[in-house]
Amino acid sequence: MKATHRGGGALPTHVTETALGWVGLVMGPRGLRYATLPRPSRAEAEAEAIAAGGSFDIADERLSDAARLIRAYAEGAPVPIESFPVDLPPCTPLQKAVWLALREIPRGEVRSYGWMAARVGRPGAARAIGRIVGSNPLPIWVPCHRVVAADGSLHGYGGGLALKERLLRLEGAPLPATTSQRA
Questions:
Q1: What does pTM read for this prediction?
Q2: Position 88 in a domain
Q3: Which one of the listed residues 11, 52, 110, 144 is annotated catalytic?
Q4: Range of 46's domain?
């Protein structure tokens, strides 16, 4: 029988296969704490989830809900993935503000790094905000893929620009003409 997490130490973890690849999910006390980007193998997603503090020996029923949501999302269903509770890891107030502001970007829409900077009260700090966006511990759930360059072009993504484009297409977001020509 699996133990139930009571706080401290390792966190409940689950890996699920989606249409995008294997995704590792780590649950904190108040919600999802960490999620991997889609990985080509189960082993890669498991290793990353464990490195983030996860343990497969701890049960948490919320992981089933999270796994169902990410699988449906990957199939293109309009599920409210960005509404699922998150439990951000220890971070600075600015990191928290940026990561939570990402959740305000509606599905099918994009915002610029400049918009993000202004949104968190740091106009002119788009590059610094971009670094925080890039360190997001919950990609897809905290939709950093919805942030684009000022000219609308795709810029920076931990999973690569092809995955960023695929996620935006999946959500029906507008893409620059040069991106569409590449596909």
A1: 0.86
A2: no
A3: 144
A4: 3-83
